[in-house]
Amino acid sequence: MTKFLTALPLCTALLALMPAVVGAQTATTTEPAEQSTAPEQSTTPEQSSTSEQSNTSEQSSSVQEGLSLGEDADKDPSIGQPYAKEVIGAWELRCIKLEEGEEPCQMYQLMDDGQGAPVAEVSLFRLPAGGKAIAGATIIVPLETALPQQLTISIDGGKARRYPYAFCNPVGCYVRLGLTEGDITAFKRGNEAKLTIVPALAPDQTVELTLSLEGFTASYDKASVLEQ
């Protein structure tokens, strides 16, 4: 009985200490978990090298797409594509490639400002007989041209004729004119034609362009009749 009473306070003391011990053990067990963090992922040299190679490959592919490998300059044009068939004097005979039959061709000349910079262009074609105009031409001049002043053309200093502008688009402003038999005769006999335009930003000034008539007759004879 005495042993039991002696042991009871000891058991009671142990029971009283258990919550503190258990709490201490729990804190000791959970503390490392609270402090632990995920290990940092490191990039190996092999992974870094692979990533650099991938970026370099993408950049090289992008550069390759912007490069032209060229083509055979002497190969035949594709069906339906325009091409320069012949140069006659100052004129270029431009035709449309067809699989068979006679190719439609028209006369073409690019005019510059006298210093080599292109300014305007002329395309001339023949028309079927029966109308007042036996030929037609399309003239393209730069944007910001004063449209109300129209375009004037004179041959070898002769009397000028005035033609209106038909429309403008991002390429330039267009003049579509008809040429009578008298006009064509004058072109064949002449040396050069002067085309005069007026800049919209300087309406008190004029720009004079020279259209060479060298080779006009031979080119005109080879130009096609535009079918209506």
Structural summary, described in words:
By secondary structure, the chain is of the alpha+beta class. The chain has a domain of about 140 residues: Invasion associated locus B (IalB) protein (Immunoglobulin-like, Sandwich). It is built from four helices and eleven strands. A hairpin with a 5-residue loop joins strand 6 and strand 7. The protein is elongated, with a radius of gyration of 44 Å. The N terminus is likely disordered.
Write a short abstract of this structure.
With 228 residues, this protein is of the alpha+beta class. The chain contains four helices and eleven strands. The chain has helices at residues 2-35, 45-65, 181-189, 216-222; strands spanning 82-88, 91-96, 105-112, 118-126, 135-141, 151-155, 161-163, 167-169, 172-179, 192-197, 207-212.
Distinctive features:
228 residues; alpha+beta; seven-stranded antiparallel sheet; 31% helix; elongated; 4 helices; four-stranded antiparallel sheet; disordered N terminus; Immunoglobulin-like
